[in-house]
Task: inverse folding
């Protein structure tokens, strides 16, 4: 059907009906047909972040250099489509471009195993006459996903309904360049696309930018709660890859993995660069291992299964309460809940309605779209998704973008209970900060991870014993809690790890941060505590800047107001021979220097 429509759209000698009732299909002038012949498509892979498996390719328009040589004023796809829009031929041009991309995609070997991401101008979405051109793309199992650009306004009436029609016709929908255009969270909520592509603006330098990480973290969590998968586009560095992966992004696209290429002859299976990145990352993934142990490997139902298969699925007394539903690529579409079938099973003609093919014989309209999480998602993020009202039944777990199993509410409660017990066993009872075992693990992991820099900071109070002896342990505990709260807040904002070694000794770890910036913030933390600690003394002591107390030898002398000093061990990326014992020795050797420093901070670089 689509080829016939395109022939009528592009051939001035043939006339056809317009997609809008009673109209005529627009005809492309010869100049536009000539320009289309100059263009071709390159493909850039979209890759699963955990496995390196190729999920599909995006078709990217190329050939504008040839146009420039011929004096044609369009230098990029945006200008080209703007010109088509200005001349009123955008629907026909877009359809011709799609047909050209599909033809190039079909020429690849193994194309049936992946997905094709096609860009569509947002000005066409929801407009009269566009649906007929686009609906023809759902054919022969192509697995096409329409990438809707945010360059134009997507808030017009009918956009949400148009997106729903595309999805109902079997086309996937991706919101492209999310976060920098017109579309926002409202469209994400109302349209519920299959994919969201985080714009390169937020990916560039995300490993160094706390604000970008916070925005991406929130977007990933919100999208997964709605069952939407995340593609991080424009990844160019290893640090950007690791950061996006650890934030929970499902797929990656960018120059680090593969540049757009015109010479693909087959759809790639896997990309070794991603496999190598994951292999080199030695950070422990114990939560992912535990999650794989507790999920239920419920057999999924293909979405094109007949409705009567549900009766067999839920027939036995020990049948699960839900049935996962997947598409032809094993990507989860949602759940069908047994309780939702009661209106059929217990009604007079319910069974007949399920068997009636005249009202639709697939599972599509019975699917309930709940939250989805990758098997490597940190447990805290899984709990966030479960906290959504729609997640009462549980969460679909994916691995590499494909259905892996189902995490029931009972299994999640068990995981949370196990984690809470483990945390309680290794927490300082006073401050509730992680204790020595967690601190040792952090140091060992930092020494193993040589892909980035690390800053390990030992912190302890100055003259805490005379303070505690003079004012009592309750006032000493108040001072410790006061500093612990400051340290917790610092770690939460600065993406750091805070621990309590015991007594008045604390630990702070920061990985992959700008050293000067982190040290500046640590110095600010110490200064703030000095100011806070003044509230522990009476006005006279504050005015005098100290108090009289006995030292460890029984002699009475003046001690200054409480402060905290720190030794920061800086570890550069790359090979080194450092061990935990070397780190401890470096800290012990610099404690005195830190306490006598005006900033109360000493930086040491062992091995240099």
Result:
């Amino acid at each position: 059907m689509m080829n016939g429509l395109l022939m009528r759209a592009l051939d001035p000698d043939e006339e056809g009906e317009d997609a809008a009732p009673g109209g005529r299909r627009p005809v492309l002038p010869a100049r536009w047909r000539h320009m289309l012949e100059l263009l071709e498509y390159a493909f850039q892979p979209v890759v699963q972040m955990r496995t390196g498996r190729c999920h599909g390719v995006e078709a990217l328009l190329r050939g504008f250099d040839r146009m420039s040589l011929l004096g044609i004023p369009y230098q990029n796809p945006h200008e080209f489509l703007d010109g088509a829009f200005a001349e009123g031929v955008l629907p026909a041009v877009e359809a011709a471009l799609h047909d050209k991309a599909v033809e190039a995609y079909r020429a690849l070997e193994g194309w049936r195993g992946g997905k094709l991401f096609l860009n569509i101008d947002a000005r066409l979405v929801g407009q009269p006459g566009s649906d007929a051109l686009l609906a023809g793309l759902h054919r022969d199992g192509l697995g096409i996903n329409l990438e809707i650009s945010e360059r134009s306004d997507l808030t017009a009436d009918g956009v949400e309904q148009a997106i729903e029609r595309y999805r109902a016709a079997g086309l996937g929908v991706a919101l492209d360049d999310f976060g920098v255009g017109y579309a926002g969270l409202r469209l994400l909520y109302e349209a519920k696309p299959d994919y969201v592509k985080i714009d390169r603006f937020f990916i560039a330098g995300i490993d160094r930018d706390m604000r970008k990480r916070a925005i991406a973290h929130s977007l990933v969590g919100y999208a997964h709660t709605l069952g939407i998968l995340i593609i991080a586009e424009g990844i160019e560095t290893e640090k950007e890859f690791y950061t996006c992966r650890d934030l929970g992004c499902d797929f990656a696209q960018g120059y680090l993995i593969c540049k757009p290429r015109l010479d693909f002859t087959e759809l790639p299976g896997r990309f070794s660069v991603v496999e190598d990145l994951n292999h080199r990352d030695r950070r422990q993934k114990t939560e992912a291992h535990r999650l794989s142990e507790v999920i239920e490997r419920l057999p999924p139902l293909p979405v094109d299964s007949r409705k009567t298969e549900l009766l067999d699925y839920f027939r036995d007394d020990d049948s699960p309460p839900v049935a996962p539903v997947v598409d032809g690529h094993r990507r989860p579409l949602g759940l069908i809940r047994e309780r939702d079938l009661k209106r059929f099973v217990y009604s007079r003609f319910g069974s007949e309605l399920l068997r009636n093919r005249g009202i639709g014989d697939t599972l599509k309209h019975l699917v309930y779209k709940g939250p989805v999480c990758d098997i490597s998602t940190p447990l805290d993020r899984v709990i966030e998704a479960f906290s959504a009202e729609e997640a009462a039944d549980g969460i679909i777990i994916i691995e590499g973008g494909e259905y892996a199993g189902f995490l029931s509410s009972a299994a999640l409660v068990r995981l949370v209970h196990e984690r809470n017990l483990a945390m309680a066993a290794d927490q300082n009872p006073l401050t509730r900060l992680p204790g020595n075992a967690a601190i040792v693990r952090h140091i060992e992991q930092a020494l193993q991870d040589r892909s980035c820099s690390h800053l390990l900071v030992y912190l302890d109070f100055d003259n805490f014993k005379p303070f505690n002896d003079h004012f009592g342990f309750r006032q000493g505990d108040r001072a410790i809690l006061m500093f612990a709260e400051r340290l917790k807040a610092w770690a939460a904002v600065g993406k750091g790890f805070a621990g309590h070694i015991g007594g008045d000794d604390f630990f702070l770890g920061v990985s992959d941060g700008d050293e000067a910036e982190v040290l500046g913030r640590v110095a600010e933390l110490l200064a703030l505590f000095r100011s806070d600690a003044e509230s522990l003394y009476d006005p006279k002591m504050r005015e005098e800047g100290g108090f009289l107390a006995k030292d460890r030898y029984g002699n009475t002398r003046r001690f200054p107001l409480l402060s905290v000093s720190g030794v920061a061990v800086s570890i550069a990326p790359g090979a080194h021979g450092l061990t935990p014992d070397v780190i401890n020795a470096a800290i012990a050797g610099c404690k005195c220097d830190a306490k006598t420093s005006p900033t109360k901070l000493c930086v040491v670089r062992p091995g240099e």
Summary: The first strand starts at residue 40 and ends at 48. Residues 1-25 have pLDDT under 50 and may be disordered. The chain has 24 helices and 21 strands.
